[in-house]
Amino acid sequence: MELRTNGERAELVGPDEEVIDPRVLDVPAELTTALHEWAQVVAAMQRADAPEDASAAVLVSRRGMQLADRLSAVLETTVRYHDPLTGEVLFVEAAPPPPVPPRPQPEPTPWLTGLTVAGLMAIVTVAAVLTLAITLSETNALLAIGANAVVTAGLAPSVWLARRVLIWRWVALGVASGLAIGWVALIFVLI
Question: How far, in Å, CA of 111 to CA of 99, rounded?
Answer without folding.
Answer: 35
